[in-house]
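re the bet — no i am not wrong, look at it urself. input seq straight from the record:
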Amino acid sequence: MADAALRLTGILEQLLGAPLPVRIRTWDGSQAGPPDAPVLVVRNRRALRRLLFKPGELGLARAWVAGDLTIDGDLYTVLDLLAGIVWERDEDARTLAQSLRDPEFRSAVRQLFAMAGPPLPPAPPREEVRRPRRGLHTKRSDKRAVSHHYDVGNEFYEIVLGPSMVYSCAYWPAPPPEGTLEQAQHDKLELVARKLALRPGQRLLDVGCGWGSMAIHAAREHGVNVVGITLSQEQAAYARKRIAEEGLTDRVEIRVQDYRDVADGPYDAISSIGMAEHVGSERYLEYATVLHRLLSPGGRLLNHQIARRPQRDESSYQVDEFIDAYVFPDGELAPLGTTVSLLERAGFEVRDVESIREHYALTLRRWVANLESGQARATALAGPGRTRVWLLYMAASALAFERNRIGVNQVVAVRTPESGASGVPLRARVWGAPGPA
């Protein structure tokens, strides 16, 4: 008799102490749970072993990436329903120990082991990065982490990002379908240019330049001379090709270079768009100090960075296991207040902070739609595991921005000279049109 789904649902509800918000379908074809709910498909017993040997987010992620778990229904809905029992459960070791003293809880664990089969932990999917969290953010470790994330293949990123090839939050005039992703990304690049007050002949350093979109925009639209730096060989090659096709090789230079090795300042402006998340808390003051040193007096920094919510006890902050293992190795998020404070300690005068949190949710949903529509080709290029990583990461991130669990902010900071003349308009949000290219 096919009853694995009913048995599994009963066990899981006993362990969680709450009814499952999704329907379960198991490897024997049986189903159980709310009839109208989206379906979580447990394709084999290996999925259970992954959850037993790594309970919580990482075990679920491993099962998803390996294809042991799939979803029949809307991905966003399932993630939202599961958030309350997985991502938002605040259980520490003491709580777990108390649960294990409960005879009914122990009985449910034994039943789950019996369903899972031979008690051997499956090997993690090959897409997972496993390394000790020590010696972080050396030049070598940063290059390796960036390579893991960005050297997936430029064609894969073309599917996800679309023609703009901008891998950061777009700036939407209105929710889709009012605006297109390409127009919203153009508007974001123009917003950055205006906040930096770019003018012809200036020097711009674009830290973490990606595939060259900001560098091209600044040179083509504002007549700026740009140096873009990245640690990704694939990004650099792609950006140089685009720059040559635009006829901008006399204005834009792309380097494979660590920010700590840039020594040809001063620059009139610096853009750091989606780069600072890779720097790490231990290195952030150094990062801000390097950028301050590279700017000329009166020069502006535009720092575009994802932020997490502050915790009561900041020492208890832990990097998200799934993101660290599969998406951004060694990446860290900081509260906005921490970032502003460190920029000030480095010598900057912070002049403006703009939250564009909702814009990132809209951007991520478009990226997910792009990947879903191009999933067959993406899988052929990067493999099924990598494609599943990106679907899960982007969909979960969209929900996190929508629910205000994380945010994204643009901070304008100035290396204000001793005279105190910042050069920023009295009404800062009236950024003023830059001069013609």
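see?? The first helix runs from residue 4 to 16. told u. also The chain has a mean pLDDT of 89. so pay up
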